[in-house]
Specification:
- The protein is α+β, with helices and mostly antiparallel strands and 479 residues long.
- α3 packs antiparallel against α7, α3 packs parallel to α8 and α8 packs across α9.
- It starts with a helix and ends in a 9-residue tail after the last helix.
- 29% of the residues lie in helices and 22% in strands.
- The longest helix has 16 residues.
- The strands form five sheets. Strands 4, 5, 6, 7, 14, 15 and 16 form a seven-stranded mixed sheet that branches.
């Protein structure tokens, strides 16, 4: 079903009295502060789904509004994927990236082939790549007389189109998953103004072999406001072998970082491995290329990732899409024996049915919520959050959620209540879900989703809802 058709059916369903609050009759009112915020944002009540209840499932629901309506949750869907992974894999789960040496070390040279086999590590960032290659240099190797072969076969993913979702292929949130994912397939440019020289120096997080990149860019005229500094730089990312910055950088911006998913992502890992090796003073006579590890070869060592509990924290605090997709693919590989999205979705659905046989099954798509097809009901997600609160992995799960007004994607929240909440936003979608700490000491689960063309203006609505939930003595809307 197209998004437009889904929206039309939802509106018609409401008009016909089909959508119910908590599965019963349509509720007649929402909390007054929420109603007022909706009016200011020009969002109809029918475009909203809300579930608020104590973390103890046996206690009465606080507010249920259209809770069984399947809606697009945007990045709030990451809660399903990360909780499923914590329960099925355990918070101490790690990814191991083995390195194989098919050859011999001879007077500072390794003569043979080095194999690096990706296993889905979501956090093989630049400093960990440096450590991985540094292990080889620690063996006294300065020159690789042969090739470095990168094995991506642990995941069955191909044909990722970074422009498909919103025609923004250079945005890091559109980067595709990879069994050998290096630095999230993202280069980070750091701009440091040098007024005396009239330029901004550029620092690159990853040395990338075969990519021409400017060392500096001219400063804009004195007094130029920072404003939209990225547009002022007039960047051209279209050439996989060259970064072009045709504009100027305002000194008033100070130090800034710009993460970019460069063109030619299929060669990102090879360029990063070769670039890092050479930046460390290493040499290579052959190529860095894709291939597979020969059967029977034993690894020389493994690069071990941070534990899943830490990875989940990064995913939910900063809403990292490609890390979440890595996690869903890993679920497929570990539970079904195949590192594919189909296998990951199957593993997740089997887990869901085992835990909540009567609850509506979510449509997870890629697991990250970067999708127009993902769907879940507020009631289903709310019940999952209640179960998570009482699970053995509750500390890791709750600690992964942004804290209202403090960190992650909630650092600019205007809500005054204490809350751990995951946010989500796409065009026509705004959502949040997690836990609110009531002033009485009661803990609540809260799920709120807005699907409407004016959803971008819904943040004050969600802030008002969080504060209302925290005020335990407020009037409770009828279910």
């Amino acid at each position: 079903m197209s998004e437009r058709m889904w929206w039309r059916r939802m509106r018609l369903g409401v008009a016909g009295g089909v959508l119910a609050a908590g599965g019963g009759a349509l509720a007649q009112s929402l909390p007054a502060p929420v109603e007022a915020a909706l009016a200011r944002a020009q969002i109809p009540r029918e475009a909203v789904s809300i579930y608020a209840a104590p973390v103890e499932a046996q206690r009465p629901v606080r507010l249920a509004w259209q809770t069984r309506t399947a809606m697009n949750p945007a990045s709030v869907m990451k809660l399903v994927t990360t909780y499923a992974a914590l329960e099925q894999l355990g918070p101490a789960y790690v990814w191991r990236t083995p390195v194989y040496l098919d050859g011999v070390v001879d007077q500072g040279a390794f003569r043979g082939t080095v194999y690096i086999q990706g296993a889905g590590d979501p956090k093989l960032v630049s400093e960990r790549l440096w450590l991985l290659l540094g292990r080889l240099q620690g063996m006294g190797v300065k020159v690789i007389v042969g090739d470095v072969v990168l094995d991506h076969s642990a995941f069955q993913v191909s044909g990722h189109d970074a422009a498909a979702f919103d025609n923004e292929p250079f945005r890091p949130y559109n980067a595709g998953p990879d069994a050998l994912l290096i630095n999230y397939k993202t280069q980070v440019l750091g701009f440091i103004p040098d007024p005396a020289a009239g330029v901004a120096r550029i620092h690159y997080e990853l040395p990338m072999a075969g990519v021409q990149a400017p060392a500096s860019v001219p400063l804009a005229p004195a007094g130029t406001a920072c404003g939209d500094w990225r547009t002022q730089l007039q960047a051209d990312w279209s050439d996989p072998q060259r970064i072009q910055l045709l504009g100027r950088y305002p000194a008033s911006c100070g130090d800034k970082n710009w993460p970019v998913a460069l063109a030619g992502p299929e060669r990102f890992a090879a360029r990063a491995v070769e670039g890092m090796w050479r930046s460390m003073g290493g040499q290579i006579t052959g190529r860095v290329r894709d291939g597979q590890v020969p059967p029977g070869l034993k690894p020389a060592w493994d690069s071990v990732s941070p534990a899943l509990g830490e990875v989940v924290r990064d995913i939910n605090k900063f809403s990292n899409n490609v890390m979440t997709q890595q996690l869903l693919l890993t679920l497929g590989k570990e539970r079904m024996g195949v590192g594919s999205f189909d296998a990951g979705r199957t593993a997740l659905s089997q887990w869901w049915q085992l835990r909540w046989a009567v609850a509506e099954m979510p449509v997870v798509d890629n697991g990250a919520g970067l999708s127009r097809n993902a769907r879940i009901s507020a009631q289903a997600l709310g019940r999952m959050l209640q179960a998570a609160w009482h699970s053995a992995v509750m500390p890791e799960f709750v600690a992964s959620l942004p804290i209202s007004g403090t960190d992650g994607t909630l650092r600019r929240s205007k809500a005054s209540a204490n809350a751990h909440l995951k946010t989500g936003s796409l065009r026509d979608v705004n959502s949040l879900a997690g836990y609110v700490h009531g002033y009485s000491g009661q803990r609540y689960v809260l799920v709120a989703m807005v699907n409407h063309p004016n959803a971008g203006a819904a943040r004050p609505v969600l802030d008002a809802l969080v504060d209302w939930v925290a005020q335990d003595g407020a009037a409770v809307a009828q279910r």
